[in-house]
Amino acid sequence: xxxxxxxxxxxxxxxxxxxxxxxxxxxxxxxxxxxxxxxxxxxxxxxxxxxxxxxxxxxxxxxxxxxxxxxxxxxxxxxxxxxxxxxxxxxxxxxxxxxxxxxxxxxxxxxxxxxxxxxxxxxxxxxxxxxxxxxxxxxxxxxxxxxxxxxxxxxxxxxxxxxxxxxxxxxxxxxxxxxxxxxxxxxxxxxxxxxxxxxxxxxxxxxxxxxxxxxxxxxxxxxxxxxxxxxxxxxxxxxxxxxxxxxxxxxxxxxxxxxxxxxxxxxxxxxxxxxxxxxxxxxxxxxxxxxxxxxxxxxxxxxxxxxxxxxxxxxxxxxxxxxxxxxxx
Length: 329
Known about the structure:
- By secondary structure, this protein is of the alpha/beta class.
- It contains 13 helices and ten strands.
- A hairpin with a 2-residue loop joins strand 8 and strand 9 (247-250).
- Helix 4 packs parallel to helix 6 (83-98).
C-alpha cells in the first residue's frame, strides 16, 4: 500500500499536523469523566466541526478522535464492546473532512494499563487490543496510524505489532518525554529514535509534554541520534497548563506556537503539529510560520551544556536549516 505521508513529504517537504482534540471537545461541552470517542456517534456534528476547524487553519493532517479507543480505556465508560464502531466512526468523519488533499492519522494512545512485569497487561493482550482498534480505524479510511503519547517501549511494541496485524498501513510513533527529558518509564529520546528505527518505523518523534522549550531539547537529542532515513515529528502542547477560575488553560499563545514551529523547522523536523491546549487559532499561526521564510539564525532556547557531551553548535543549526530548506524544493 502506498505511503501517502511520504508522498506528501516528498511533495511539500514540510507538513503541518493539527492540534488538540480533548481541548476542543471540552470547549464544546464534554465534561470530566465523559468518553470523547462516544461523541463520534452521539455528537458527530461537533467532532466534524473540530476536524473542519483544523482543516480551515491549514493543517495537512487531521487526527482522529480515537486517542482512548482501546477496549481498556473504553471499559472505563462501559463501551468496551464498541471498539470497532467508535474507531471506524472517528476515522470516517475525519476522512469526510480531509477529502483527497489532506491525510487522516488514526490516533492510538496508551491503554492506561501497566504491562508485565510492572502490571497485569501482557504483550499478547495489549497487541490484541491495539489490533482491534486499528481494524476500526482502517475501515474508516485512515492513511496511517499515529501511536502517540507513549511512555513504554513495550507498549509501543504491542501497538506497532497490533497495527501491523490489522493492516498494512504505515505506523508513526511519538513518545512523551516529560520526566526530566525522559519518558515516565525512563526512555531517552536517542533510545526511542534508534529502537523505533530498528523496528521499521520511519516517522518518529515527541508529543505532549511540558511545552515548546522542553520539546525543543527533546527534538535536538533525537536529531543528533537520528538514523539515516528517519523523519522527525513534533507535536508540543501549547505551553504549560494553568489553573484559572477553576478551569485549566494553557499559556502558549498562537505567537508562541508560531515561534516553536520556526524552531522545529530549523532543527530539521519535517512534521510539525500541536497537542494539548492548542486550537485552530494556534494552527493558523503555525501555518503562516511554516509557509514563511526559515530562521536566519537558530540559537537553542535551552542550556546546551545539559546535553550529554553534545552541544548544539551554530554550524549544526545551519545544516539543519539547510536540510529543511532543501526538503521544500
